[in-house]
Amino acid sequence: MTGLLALAGLNAQALTLKVQTEEGRAASLVMVTQTPQPPARIDDSDNGYPASGKLQQGAFEHTRFTDAQGQATLPDTHGTFELRLRKPGYQDLKLSSKDLPATPVLTLKAEKDVRALAQQRPSNAWTATLEKAVPDASIRKEFLLHCGFCHQQGSVFLRRERSAEEWETTIKRMVRYGSRLSSQAQKELPAQLEAHWKYINAHPELVPASTPWGEHLAGAQITELPLGDRFSQMHDFLMHSNGMVYIGDNLQDRLYEVNPDTGAYTVYKIPPEAGDKLGGLLAGRLRDFPKHETYQGIHSLAESRKDGHVFITPSYQRRLIEFDPVNKTFKAHEMDSGFYPHTVRIDAKDRVWFTLALSNQVAMFDRSTAKFTTYDLPFRSLMEKLTVKLTPFFFKLIGWGLPITNWVKVDHVSTGVPLPYGIDITPDGTVWIARLHTDEIASIDPASGKVTMIPTPLHGPRRLRSDRDGNLWIAMFNESAILRYEPATAKFTTFDLPVVPKGSDTPYALNVDRQRHQVWVTGTNSDSAQCLDISSGTWRFYPLPRKATFTRDVEFGRDGRVFLSSASFPSWHIEDAQPTLIQLQPGNAK
Fold this sequence. Notes:
Among the domains are: 3-112, Immunoglobulin-like (Sandwich), CATH 2.60.40; 123-206. It contains eight helices and 37 strands. The strands form eight sheets. An eight-stranded antiparallel beta sheet has the order 8-7-3-5-10-37-36-35, with no helix packed on it. A five-stranded antiparallel beta sheet has the order 4-14-13-12-11, with no helix packed on it. The two termini are 32 Å apart.
């Protein structure tokens, strides 16, 4: 079907547009994205990034969806810009603001080419086709868990044709990066993937339709702020009480302090400590990566309610970093044990809790005494205990160029890497942990130090958050679902994500908007954010403007804005290879 775009208000700063079909019917739910052209000029004097402490002025990209009348209004803007119209089933339409007066009526053409229609669909539609190619459901889930760990598997970069030898080489490199794909899967998948993607690319009609866009989108607004470059990884971030958003570039050891209202931001380069080596304690891991300044690998952030200081976990070191947002200074708190500081939270007593992913521990930093306490999680076997204890030594060997991880046999349950991952604290002060590779959550009683392990009914608990009632919400990464766990009754409830095809998403993280009693989930494989209203049990699905938007974290503004960041590793998988800070205003949707 053909659509006509009628533009109004061309002499005004705000742009109101209307999309209608050739027959004169309004075309609703057209995603309209306005991008400044040329992009904002950002200082790149520090190895391609802004000089530390120098204020930058970014430029927002705005996205709206047309309403039932086919209308959308974009905000006031100065200067020239590019418009992109996107709607499933239609060809993208791009035009410059310079061309608008000369072309007041534009045609949005229906896409009739089967291959082009398939290319429009997000990663989850493509990975859903693996069901017949990889008949063993457990291997498919392994593949999604371990090979979709840092980037999508159905993006344009991964679904192209490769030989079995190319797949084997790629998988070996990913195992060196840290993937725990089983030895059986490492052996079987290369030939299966070669045959599958060759067949699917020859038969694009087999790629199923993706999640329909709902009418609630007409009230939604999405704003993106480009940050970093194709070599950045904007991992976790924090909505601070001072109104700023703090984002860590995991690969370049830089902290971004962003004003989400104006787009102004300042980059602070986190200085390495004396003796730190490039790559930190995992020097061999990024040996093949073309550009990085990873001495510490900043990962997760949390704010102290006492003084507003930000605590940062540097995964490539044994320390905790403290940032003073007033004085703009960093302080390192060194540890003498533990390995791979991961997700961090701070309790009501101003104690900093974080997972130690590769040493199977949880750490607590007591700010009043400046001392660390570690809590050991149980091992599943003696072999696992020995492997975990030897992990720092293994990474030394990898740093010397020995591919140890490619030599050892990996079983289907990741023995040796139980991987305590997400962490949160319920209102009663109990600390909760998700242990990804053992399909368990754990609780720690801070008063007694008692650790309790609880099996989950689904696989892949990655990150978890508490709601205002003290219930836990858990992202089940390779199950396309989230769980609610009620500590009072020890009851689990499953909520399947509202994606099409069913069961095709990989939710990396979630967060609970306690004020509005909503759970927001990262649609990491579907280029989306998804909202569950806890009271009604209803879902809302929000498509994001860029393809291959691999999101890892969710935060909230006081006004109801939802914040996410595109954090694919590598970032050149993202459409136009540009990481962004994403702000989503859901509108009137409840």
